[in-house]
Automatic annotation (TrEMBL):
Species: Klebsiella grimontii
Record-given protein name: Benzoate transport protein
Transmembrane region(s): 31-60, 72-97, 103-122, 134-167
Coiled coil, from the record: none
Keyword Membrane belongs to the record: yes
Length: 173
């Protein structure tokens, strides 16, 4: 159950939100049932984190993946093939990556996510009535705080959600 909650907070919820913000219709309930069921069945074999990968979803749905939204599925298919190859050659890839300077790896990750982060921040801060809650969510998540063994992605969603409810209630009053 704890892994399910962590996966929901750190991968599934942001992945669903990213796809929905880009105009894709996401069948949330069937996906949660499917990923949760597969994780339950496969966790005894070490496959415990089956999820909607938030970062992959964000990268594959962006205009950089393909100008035509109807053809962006090709990016997801290519990512799937890449993940299979990464699984097969994981040991070799790990050895290669450990030989590279950490700053270089961090730079590549940052560059890969730059468009996604800027687009997400623009959308999150675009609605004035939701801006404060979005900032709380972002700052708590970016802080890296861990409470009770649960990471900042979960606490960012919780505190951002609480902020949104409180601020919305205060605005209506």
């Amino acid at each position: 159950m704890p892994f399910f909650l962590v996966t929901m907070a750190s991968q599934n919820a942001p992945g669903f939100a990213t796809l929905q913000a880009s105009g894709y219709r996401v069948p949330v309930s069937p996906l949660i049932v499917a990923t949760g069921g597969l994780a339950l069945l496969l966790s005894p074999f070490g496959v415990y984190s089956i999820c909607i990968a938030a970062i992959t979803a964000a990268i594959c749905q962006s205009p950089e993946a393909h100008p035509d939204p109807q053809k962006r599925w090709l990016a997801a298919a290519a990512a799937g093939v890449f993940y299979l190859l990464a699984g097969i050659f994981g040991g070799s890839i790990t050895s290669l990556m450990s030989a590279l300077p950490m700053a270089w790896i961090q730079m590549l990750a940052g560059l890969a996510l730059l468009g996604t982060i800027s687009g997400s921040l623009f959308q999150a801060l675009n609605q004035e009535s939701e801006r404060d809650a979005a900032v709380v969510t972002f700052l708590v998540t970016a802080s890296g705080v861990t409470l009770g063994g649960v990471g900042s992605a979960f606490w960012g969603l919780v505190l951002g959600g609480v902020s949104y409810v409180l601020l919305s209630t205060l605005r209506r009053a």
